[in-house]
Structures are given as C-alpha cells and as structure tokens.
Amino acid sequence: MSKKILILDDSDDILEVMKDVLEMEGFEIKAINYTDDICKAAMAFNADLVILDYILFGINGGELCHMLKTNPVTSHIPVVMVSAYPRVLESLGNYGSDAFIAKPFDLIDIVNTVRGCLLKTGDIEHADW
Fold this sequence. Notes:
Elements: E1 4-8, H1 12-24, E2 28-32, H2 38-45, E3 49-53, E4 55-56, E5 59-60, H3 61-70, E6 79-83, H4 86-92, E7 99-102, H5 107-121
Parallel strand pairs: 1-2, 1-3, 3-6, 6-7
Antiparallel strand pairs: 4-5
C-alpha cells in the first residue's frame, strides 16, 4: 500500500513538481495551497507524512508544524519543512519538524528526505524502495 503525503505550499509550480516526483516514486499525494486547519487536513487524508512550506500566505508554516506536533492525534506524523529562507528557520527554531529542505532543491533530495523520515518511523522499509 502506498504511503500518503500531504503537501502544503502556496506556489502551484512547487506543488506540481513535488506531486509529480513523489507520485512517480509510488506515493499517494494530496497537494494543497491553503488550509484553515492543518491537523484536520492531515487526519482527513490519513497522511503518513506532511511537507510544509515555511513561508505561506497569512501564516508561518512553522506554526502549522507546531500545531501538528502538539496535537496528540497528529504528533506522530513526520513533518518536512521546505523554505527558500533557511536562515529564518535557524533563527526561529524548527518547530519540531523532522527534516528541512532548502529551496531551490534537487528532486532527489525530496525523495530521499521523505523516504528517510518514513524509514525512521518504521512506515517503510528499505525493501519498499
């Protein structure tokens, strides 16, 4: 069974690229550019992993990560933060994210980071690759 990844980014181009590459790797993807409740979105999709952009319209993606990580129902879900501003993330903390990818990124970095996070949680094994 394929693992489900929820991607939240306010750039449609970034969403499309990440969606395409991760679907080619066998993941089921839900790509959104807005949500008023990240925990509800993750639970409704039954996400195995969430990818969040750090700078979003109207909200800091780090705050969304914090919401996921402090909610008992979603705290186990790995969160990968992506941002073109890695220094901002360093100065404000990582909000409990499991990994960070700087934009611009290589597509292999996205795939390897997702696999690494799922491997750490036991959601996939090397044999699943």
